Amino acid sequence: MLRTGGTTGGATGGACGRFAPSPTGPLHAGSLVAALASWLDARAHGGRWLVRIEDVDTPRCVPGAAEHILQQLAQCGLVPDEAPLWQSTRGAAYAQALQRLQDRAAAYPCACTRKDIDAYWLAQGLPHTPEAERVYPGTCRPERGGLGGRPARAWRLRAEGVVAWQDRRLGAQQQDVAQAVGDCVLRRADGLWAYQLAVVVDDAAQGVTHVVRGEDLADNTARQILLQRALGLPTPAYLHTPLVLAGDGRKLSKQNGAKPLDLHDPVAALQSAAAVLGLPLVQAPTPALWLAHALPAWAQAWGSPRL
Q1: Mean pLDDT across the stretch 157-177?
Q2: Is residue 7 one of the residues assigned to a domain?
Q3: Is 120 one of the annotated binding-site residues?
Q4: From the record, which residues define motif 'HIGH' region (predicted)?
Protein backbone atom coordinates (compact mmCIF):
# COMPACT_ATOMS: atom_id res chain seq x y z
CA MET A 1 0.00 0.00 0.00
CA LEU A 2 1.38 3.39 -1.00
CA ARG A 3 2.35 5.60 1.87
CA THR A 4 3.03 9.31 1.78
CA GLY A 5 4.54 11.41 4.52
CA GLY A 6 4.30 14.86 2.96
CA THR A 7 1.46 17.27 2.42
CA THR A 8 -1.21 16.32 -0.05
CA GLY A 9 -2.01 19.36 -2.07
CA GLY A 10 -3.06 21.84 0.61
CA ALA A 11 -1.82 24.74 -1.53
CA THR A 12 -4.14 23.98 -4.46
CA GLY A 13 -7.08 25.82 -2.90
CA GLY A 14 -10.76 24.89 -3.02
CA ALA A 15 -12.83 22.76 -0.68
CA CYS A 16 -11.32 19.66 0.89
CA GLY A 17 -12.79 17.03 3.19
CA ARG A 18 -11.27 13.99 4.83
CA PHE A 19 -12.02 10.71 6.57
CA ALA A 20 -9.48 9.81 9.23
CA PRO A 21 -9.86 6.28 10.64
CA SER A 22 -7.64 4.74 13.27
CA PRO A 23 -6.42 1.30 12.12
CA THR A 24 -7.44 -0.56 15.25
CA GLY A 25 -9.76 -2.86 13.34
CA PRO A 26 -12.09 -2.93 10.33
CA LEU A 27 -14.76 -0.34 9.64
CA HIS A 28 -18.11 -0.84 11.35
CA ALA A 29 -21.53 0.74 10.72
CA GLY A 30 -20.66 3.90 12.66
CA SER A 31 -17.43 4.35 10.73
CA LEU A 32 -19.25 4.19 7.41
CA VAL A 33 -21.63 6.96 8.49
CA ALA A 34 -18.68 9.31 9.04
CA ALA A 35 -16.91 8.21 5.85
CA LEU A 36 -20.03 8.63 3.72
CA ALA A 37 -20.90 12.03 5.20
CA SER A 38 -17.40 13.36 4.66
CA TRP A 39 -17.36 12.10 1.04
CA LEU A 40 -20.77 13.57 0.22
CA ASP A 41 -19.87 16.88 1.84
CA ALA A 42 -16.59 17.21 -0.06
CA ARG A 43 -18.29 16.42 -3.35
CA ALA A 44 -21.19 18.79 -2.59
CA HIS A 45 -18.62 21.57 -2.25
CA GLY A 46 -16.93 20.55 -5.50
CA GLY A 47 -13.83 19.58 -3.58
CA ARG A 48 -11.33 16.82 -2.90
CA TRP A 49 -11.89 13.93 -0.53
CA LEU A 50 -8.89 12.50 1.31
CA VAL A 51 -8.23 9.59 3.64
CA ARG A 52 -5.77 9.92 6.50
CA ILE A 53 -4.67 6.86 8.47
CA GLU A 54 -4.43 8.03 12.08
CA ASP A 55 -1.86 5.54 13.31
CA VAL A 56 0.10 7.69 15.78
CA ASP A 57 -1.09 5.51 18.68
CA THR A 58 0.97 2.58 17.44
CA PRO A 59 0.33 0.19 20.37
CA ARG A 60 -3.39 0.18 19.48
CA CYS A 61 -2.92 -0.32 15.74
CA VAL A 62 -3.66 -3.73 14.25
CA PRO A 63 -1.36 -4.97 11.45
CA GLY A 64 -3.18 -4.94 8.12
CA ALA A 65 -6.17 -2.99 9.47
CA ALA A 66 -5.40 0.16 7.46
CA GLU A 67 -5.22 -1.76 4.20
CA HIS A 68 -8.48 -3.55 5.06
CA ILE A 69 -10.19 -0.22 5.80
CA LEU A 70 -9.12 1.16 2.42
CA GLN A 71 -10.50 -1.97 0.73
CA GLN A 72 -13.81 -1.59 2.57
CA LEU A 73 -14.06 2.05 1.49
CA ALA A 74 -13.34 1.10 -2.11
CA GLN A 75 -16.09 -1.55 -2.03
CA CYS A 76 -18.48 1.27 -1.14
CA GLY A 77 -17.20 3.48 -3.95
CA LEU A 78 -15.37 5.78 -1.53
CA VAL A 79 -11.93 6.19 -3.11
CA PRO A 80 -9.70 9.09 -2.01
CA ASP A 81 -8.49 11.58 -4.60
CA GLU A 82 -4.89 11.21 -3.42
CA ALA A 83 -2.76 8.56 -1.76
CA PRO A 84 -3.64 8.21 1.94
CA LEU A 85 -1.57 10.14 4.47
CA TRP A 86 -0.16 8.00 7.29
CA GLN A 87 0.38 9.86 10.54
CA SER A 88 3.16 7.48 11.54
CA THR A 89 5.32 9.13 8.86
CA ARG A 90 4.69 12.67 10.12
CA GLY A 91 6.85 12.89 13.24
CA ALA A 92 9.07 15.67 11.88
CA ALA A 93 6.06 17.90 11.16
CA TYR A 94 4.68 17.36 14.66
CA ALA A 95 8.07 18.12 16.19
CA GLN A 96 8.26 21.39 14.27
CA ALA A 97 4.78 22.36 15.46
CA LEU A 98 5.67 21.58 19.07
CA GLN A 99 8.81 23.70 18.76
CA ARG A 100 6.74 26.63 17.49
CA LEU A 101 4.44 26.29 20.47
CA GLN A 102 7.41 26.19 22.83
CA ASP A 103 8.90 29.28 21.21
CA ARG A 104 5.61 31.11 21.78
CA ALA A 105 5.34 29.92 25.41
CA ALA A 106 2.11 28.14 24.45
CA ALA A 107 3.46 24.72 25.52
CA TYR A 108 5.29 23.57 28.62
CA PRO A 109 6.76 20.32 30.01
CA CYS A 110 4.79 18.28 32.52
CA ALA A 111 5.98 15.74 35.09
CA CYS A 112 2.55 14.56 36.29
CA THR A 113 1.22 11.04 36.04
CA ARG A 114 -2.47 10.14 35.91
CA LYS A 115 -2.18 9.11 39.56
CA ASP A 116 -0.82 12.56 40.40
CA ILE A 117 -3.79 14.21 38.69
CA ASP A 118 -6.27 11.88 40.38
CA ALA A 119 -4.64 12.52 43.77
CA TYR A 120 -4.96 16.29 43.28
CA TRP A 121 -8.69 16.11 42.60
CA LEU A 122 -9.25 13.56 45.36
CA ALA A 123 -7.70 16.05 47.76
CA GLN A 124 -10.26 18.59 46.49
CA GLY A 125 -13.05 16.14 47.21
CA LEU A 126 -13.61 15.34 43.53
CA PRO A 127 -12.56 11.74 42.83
CA HIS A 128 -12.10 10.77 39.18
CA THR A 129 -14.72 8.57 37.55
CA PRO A 130 -13.90 6.52 34.43
CA GLU A 131 -16.62 8.18 32.33
CA ALA A 132 -15.45 11.74 33.08
CA GLU A 133 -12.69 13.76 31.46
CA ARG A 134 -9.51 13.75 33.56
CA VAL A 135 -9.07 17.53 33.87
CA TYR A 136 -5.45 18.63 34.25
CA PRO A 137 -5.18 21.23 37.05
CA GLY A 138 -2.09 23.01 35.68
CA THR A 139 0.28 21.69 38.32
CA CYS A 140 3.40 22.05 36.14
CA ARG A 141 2.64 25.45 34.65
CA PRO A 142 5.74 27.66 34.88
CA GLU A 143 3.92 30.27 36.97
CA ARG A 144 3.06 27.52 39.49
CA GLY A 145 6.63 26.35 39.92
CA GLY A 146 7.07 24.26 36.79
CA LEU A 147 8.45 20.77 37.11
CA GLY A 148 9.59 21.30 40.70
CA GLY A 149 12.78 19.35 40.09
CA ARG A 150 10.97 16.35 38.62
CA PRO A 151 11.84 15.01 35.15
CA ALA A 152 9.54 16.03 32.29
CA ARG A 153 7.27 13.27 31.05
CA ALA A 154 5.06 15.04 28.52
CA TRP A 155 4.33 18.38 26.85
CA ARG A 156 1.07 20.25 27.32
CA LEU A 157 -0.79 23.08 25.58
CA ARG A 158 -1.62 26.11 27.71
CA ALA A 159 -5.42 26.44 27.57
CA GLU A 160 -6.86 29.91 28.12
CA GLY A 161 -10.36 31.35 27.76
CA VAL A 162 -13.65 30.22 26.28
CA VAL A 163 -13.68 28.93 22.70
CA ALA A 164 -16.88 29.45 20.71
CA TRP A 165 -17.63 27.98 17.30
CA GLN A 166 -20.57 27.21 15.04
CA ASP A 167 -21.21 23.58 14.22
CA ARG A 168 -23.08 23.14 10.94
CA ARG A 169 -25.44 20.59 12.50
CA LEU A 170 -25.29 21.18 16.27
CA GLY A 171 -25.39 24.98 16.06
CA ALA A 172 -23.61 27.38 18.42
CA GLN A 173 -21.08 25.67 20.67
CA GLN A 174 -18.66 26.87 23.32
CA GLN A 175 -16.28 25.40 25.87
CA ASP A 176 -14.03 26.74 28.60
CA VAL A 177 -11.18 24.39 27.80
CA ALA A 178 -9.24 25.11 30.98
CA GLN A 179 -12.22 24.09 33.13
CA ALA A 180 -13.56 21.27 30.95
CA VAL A 181 -10.27 19.62 29.99
CA GLY A 182 -7.31 21.56 31.31
CA ASP A 183 -4.01 21.85 29.48
CA CYS A 184 -4.14 18.97 27.00
CA VAL A 185 -1.20 16.72 26.15
CA LEU A 186 0.73 17.37 22.92
CA ARG A 187 3.41 14.71 23.32
CA ARG A 188 2.80 11.79 25.60
CA ALA A 189 5.01 10.37 28.32
CA ASP A 190 5.73 7.34 26.12
CA GLY A 191 7.09 9.65 23.40
CA LEU A 192 4.11 9.24 21.06
CA TRP A 193 2.41 12.26 19.56
CA ALA A 194 -1.00 13.14 20.93
CA TYR A 195 -4.09 12.94 18.76
CA GLN A 196 -4.97 16.65 19.12
CA LEU A 197 -1.64 17.93 17.79
CA ALA A 198 -1.46 15.42 14.93
CA VAL A 199 -5.01 16.20 13.74
CA VAL A 200 -4.48 19.96 13.71
CA VAL A 201 -1.12 19.81 11.95
CA ASP A 202 -2.35 17.36 9.32
CA ASP A 203 -5.66 19.11 8.62
CA ALA A 204 -3.68 22.25 7.81
CA ALA A 205 -1.03 20.40 5.79
CA GLN A 206 -3.69 18.65 3.71
CA GLY A 207 -5.67 21.85 3.15
CA VAL A 208 -8.78 20.47 4.86
CA THR A 209 -11.56 23.08 4.81
CA HIS A 210 -14.53 20.96 5.94
CA VAL A 211 -14.28 18.53 8.85
CA VAL A 212 -17.20 16.09 8.95
CA ARG A 213 -16.99 13.48 11.71
CA GLY A 214 -19.00 11.75 14.44
CA GLU A 215 -20.72 13.71 17.17
CA ASP A 216 -18.58 11.99 19.81
CA LEU A 217 -15.62 14.06 18.55
CA ALA A 218 -17.39 17.42 18.96
CA ASP A 219 -15.84 17.79 22.41
CA ASN A 220 -12.37 17.83 20.79
CA THR A 221 -13.17 20.85 18.64
CA ALA A 222 -12.39 23.59 21.17
CA ARG A 223 -8.97 22.11 21.92
CA GLN A 224 -8.21 21.87 18.24
CA ILE A 225 -9.29 25.46 17.61
CA LEU A 226 -7.00 26.60 20.43
CA LEU A 227 -4.14 24.74 18.78
CA GLN A 228 -4.96 26.19 15.37
CA ARG A 229 -4.86 29.70 16.82
CA ALA A 230 -1.63 29.07 18.71
CA LEU A 231 0.03 27.76 15.52
CA GLY A 232 -1.45 30.43 13.24
CA LEU A 233 -3.41 27.84 11.22
CA PRO A 234 -6.88 28.19 9.63
CA THR A 235 -9.97 26.76 11.30
CA PRO A 236 -12.11 24.48 9.09
CA ALA A 237 -15.90 24.39 9.05
CA TYR A 238 -17.15 21.62 11.37
CA LEU A 239 -20.12 19.28 11.05
CA HIS A 240 -20.63 16.49 13.57
CA THR A 241 -22.88 13.66 12.42
CA PRO A 242 -25.35 11.52 14.43
CA LEU A 243 -23.93 8.41 16.03
CA VAL A 244 -24.84 4.79 15.50
CA LEU A 245 -25.69 3.38 18.91
CA ALA A 246 -25.18 -0.11 20.25
CA GLY A 247 -27.96 -2.07 21.92
CA ASP A 248 -27.03 -0.64 25.35
CA GLY A 249 -27.33 2.94 24.10
CA ARG A 250 -23.61 3.58 23.94
CA LYS A 251 -21.81 4.71 20.79
CA LEU A 252 -21.12 1.77 18.49
CA SER A 253 -17.36 1.25 18.55
CA LYS A 254 -14.65 -1.35 18.25
CA GLN A 255 -14.14 -1.11 22.01
CA ASN A 256 -17.68 -2.32 22.75
CA GLY A 257 -17.71 -5.11 20.21
CA ALA A 258 -18.99 -3.47 17.04
CA LYS A 259 -19.13 -6.00 14.23
CA PRO A 260 -17.18 -5.33 11.01
CA LEU A 261 -19.21 -3.95 8.13
CA ASP A 262 -21.12 -6.56 6.18
CA LEU A 263 -20.28 -5.62 2.60
CA HIS A 264 -21.86 -8.52 0.77
CA ASP A 265 -24.25 -5.81 -0.44
CA PRO A 266 -22.36 -2.47 -0.39
CA VAL A 267 -25.43 -0.55 -1.57
CA ALA A 268 -27.40 -1.82 1.43
CA ALA A 269 -24.59 -0.74 3.74
CA LEU A 270 -24.59 2.73 2.19
CA GLN A 271 -28.37 2.90 2.50
CA SER A 272 -28.17 2.10 6.21
CA ALA A 273 -25.54 4.80 6.73
CA ALA A 274 -27.64 7.31 4.79
CA ALA A 275 -30.64 6.58 7.01
CA VAL A 276 -28.61 7.61 10.08
CA LEU A 277 -27.79 10.86 8.28
CA GLY A 278 -31.45 11.52 7.53
CA LEU A 279 -31.07 11.11 3.77
CA PRO A 280 -33.92 9.71 1.68
CA LEU A 281 -34.03 6.19 0.29
CA VAL A 282 -32.05 5.78 -2.94
CA GLN A 283 -32.48 2.92 -5.38
CA ALA A 284 -29.37 2.08 -7.40
CA PRO A 285 -27.65 -1.12 -8.55
CA THR A 286 -24.05 -0.10 -7.78
CA PRO A 287 -22.26 2.02 -5.14
CA ALA A 288 -21.13 4.53 -7.78
CA LEU A 289 -24.68 5.10 -9.01
CA TRP A 290 -26.00 5.16 -5.46
CA LEU A 291 -23.50 7.88 -4.50
CA ALA A 292 -24.39 9.90 -7.59
CA HIS A 293 -28.08 9.81 -6.62
CA ALA A 294 -27.41 10.52 -2.92
CA LEU A 295 -25.24 13.56 -3.59
CA PRO A 296 -28.09 15.99 -4.49
CA ALA A 297 -29.89 15.20 -1.22
CA TRP A 298 -26.78 15.98 0.81
CA ALA A 299 -26.07 19.10 -1.25
CA GLN A 300 -29.58 20.37 -0.60
CA ALA A 301 -29.21 19.84 3.15
CA TRP A 302 -25.57 20.78 3.69
CA GLY A 303 -24.28 22.25 0.44
CA SER A 304 -22.89 25.39 2.06
CA PRO A 305 -21.16 25.79 5.44
CA ARG A 306 -23.65 27.26 7.86
CA LEU A 307 -21.23 29.56 9.63
Answers
A1: 96
A2: no
A3: no
A4: 21-31
